[in-house]
Amino acid sequence: MATLLRTPAGRRADALVERVSDGPVLALADGAEPNVAASDAPLPPKPEEPSRALALSDIIAAPAGPGEALIRLAYRMGVPGHALAAPFRRPQALRMLATVDSPNRGDRAAGTALRAGHFLVHGARLPIASLDFAGSARPAPGVERVLHSFSWLADLAASAPRADCIPVAERITTMWLHAHREPNKTPAWDVEHAGLRLVAWLVHAPLVLTGQGAEQGKGLKSRLLAAIAETANWLDRKVVREGAGLGQVAGWAGIVAAGLLLPNGKPRRLFGEAGLVRALGDMVGEDGGVLSRCPAAQLEAIRLLTDLIACYDAVEITPPPALGVMRELLVPPLLSLRHGDGALGNWQGQGALPAERVAAVIEASGVRTRPLGAVQGWGYQRMRAGDTLVQFDAAPPPRARHVRIGCASTLAFELSDGPARVIVNCGGAGLTGGQLPARVGQGLRATAAFSTLVLDNANSTAVMLHGQLGKGVETVEIERRTVPARGRDATRIEAAHDGYAQRFGLTHQRILTLSGDGTELAGEDILVPVSKKGKRGKIGFAIRFHLGRGVEVQLSGDKRGASLLLPDGRLWQFRLRGDRASADEITLSAEDSLWVDGEGRPHATEQLVIEGLALRAGGQFSWLLRKTG
């Protein structure tokens, strides 16, 4: 069975209508497993009709009665919430209506570091006393996110009993409030940071609103309550202007949480729920993958929805069905990017997020399901046989409105054998500022930092500043099929992108075939001329295979193969294939490389590089990875 898909960047198809209306995702809540692309089987054919695409919000948003619709309209037009919730009555005093018990747990090591007097961000220790919360000396984006989103509150709460954590939480919060007395144009008031911060303040209120800490804690409660109200009011005005993605979802989530946990909040909650469902529909593709294609954003979205649903539970209000359905949609794509060690692959600027962190978020979500294998919108194909697992980027990079840390990674792949990673991507472009220098981050977004083919040292998609991407890959054609083989059938994926078509008149086609027992991965990289005539001359190319941490490489005597010894003693052989006469100008070498783990720590590794000159009229380069021990 074969499926041919033509996938333009950012496509959303009406397959989502069929999925939600047929009900397999909803069945997850009862412990059933999904029956839509839930395994490594080929995808059923789906017609592409983008003009008829429907957002999630069009399908599962609960219809509002005339009374609720009127309240939403009035609140959106600026009528105060207390005037709508309790007309002719004085506004209630600002206070927390309930205590939230979220199943999400933070990083205990990071929390312990806070109690010892420093932040632990991407492997670097940053003393609390010397931090500039005002941002006059702007830190790296990853550091800004930790400081201003208050995600560290969850880490602190996980590190010790509450009484031991309160003084630290109050100290840092006081420093932050002193630096940000009112909304401003610094990164602290980015909509995403503000939304995540508001949710963190409300979910972890017992750490910062008890007034039981040091002397500073006595005045902190009233100041922080005022800041909570001010942040919610600011988000009411600003979130509607935020672009699609996690930032907008975080802003709306903050509004909804404030509507649930502050007095007279029903109008704000109704207003926020409508916006949140729309934002979720704009952020997530048909198969549950976020359109930024960033695994960290996928993980953060699941965590955020879990916190928000816990806020509903705290006040005993039933959340909109869209929130539960969306969380169930988000989990299977994330699972598809877990390797045998449980950690995630290195895609779209992220490092290999640790297995413990991923498992904790999935467990807290309560969703029990299997990973997606063959997917469309998410774009990451997954093949598994025996202990061997392959992740393949078979989609264009994210569109500008969704991109976070955009990378030119189309047709790159990763391969793991059990807990050991054999072929990887460098990753980590979004984790600079700690142990990874910021100047290195730009290079980690380039095509050469991924295990794929590069033409003339040029990126398949232009890499711009500030995480943005330029022109390049617009369309990826992909066919996935099961092919007969001795023993168990093999899985074959053919994909081609047009990133080099305009510049060099060539398209890159990659074919990966994983044997049924997982002992062989055969690959072909083919350059196909765009026009029938083709061009004269030759062009330089390189096919890179970045090796996992601890993999020892030894080239063969004829320089057409290599032995790859894994840390656990398993052995893989790499071999160039094809006619030797047509490959005289092709060389295989081992070079230095870099791999970034989920904590942002760089590790020196090696890479295999096939280099040579290809005819502008096209060329074909075959290779084989075989497990021999």
* Residue share in β-strands: 15-25%
Question: How many runs of DSSP E, i.e. beta strands?
Answer: 19
Shape: elongated
Query: Could you give the distance between the termini?
Result: 32 Å
Helix count, DSSP H or I runs of 4 or more residues: 18
Q: Which structural class matches the secondary elements?
A: alpha+beta
Please tell me the overall pLDDT. 86
As residue ranges, the low-confidence spans are 9-55
The strand line-up of the biggest sheet is 1-9-10-11-12-19-16-15-14
Instruction: Summarize the amount of helix as a percent range.
Output: 25-40%
Oligomer: single chain
Question: In angstroms, what is the radius of gyration?
Answer: 26 Å
Describe the main β-sheet briefly: 9 strands, antiparallel
Folded structure, characterized:
With 629 residues, this protein is α+β, with helices and mostly antiparallel strands. It has a domain of 143 residues. Helix content is 32%, strand content 21%. It has 18 helices and 19 strands. Strands 1-9-10-11-12-19-16-15-14 form a 9-stranded antiparallel beta sheet. Strands 4, 5, 6, 7, 8, 13, 17 and 18 form an 8-stranded antiparallel beta sheet that branches. The chain has a two-stranded antiparallel sheet with strand order 2-3. Strand 15 and strand 16 form a beta hairpin. Helix 9 packs across helix 11 and helix 9 packs parallel to helix 12. The longest helix has 23 residues. The two termini are 32 Å apart. About 7% of the residues have low confidence.
